Amino acid sequence: MLFHRSVGKNIGYAKENALPWEIENAAKVANIYEFIESLPEKYNTIVSERGVKLSGGQRQRIASACAILRNAPILVLDEATSILDSHTEQEVQKSINTMLDIENVTIIAIAHRLSTIKHMDRIIVMDKGKIVEDGTFKELWEHQVNGFV
User: Fold this and answer.
1) Cα–Cα distance for residue pair 61/32, rounded to 1 Å
2) Is the pTM above the cut of 0.85?
3) Domains of the chain
4) What is d(CA 20, CA 105) in angstroms, rounded to the nearest whole number?
């Protein structure tokens, strides 16, 4: 959720008294830094309520920057790339993969797109509320005859 305030304040909302360099670093990790730097007022550029003037990918990457800045031990991604075109999905996926490399972070991803979960350490496949498969992407892919459930 984005608020009617600057991009920097939207990212900084995740951490009380966040310093400018922390916000900038989170933006770099989330692959949104270059976009922010291209804005007329950079981190001081105002985004409208819910970020309606931004693309879905830009909103997702700003949300990723918030999560990175917050440094939360658990991050839940619910269909994080479902509304994105393939190019933007790749950009958001880069930021998710970067978050996967951060130590002591557990990411729970709810996804229908295989690309969203491809690099996860463990995948649990559910069907009608029951666990039907469990393993790495490679393990699950190798024994699929008719594709994933």
Assistant:
1) 6
2) no
3) 5-118 (3.40.50.300)
4) 23
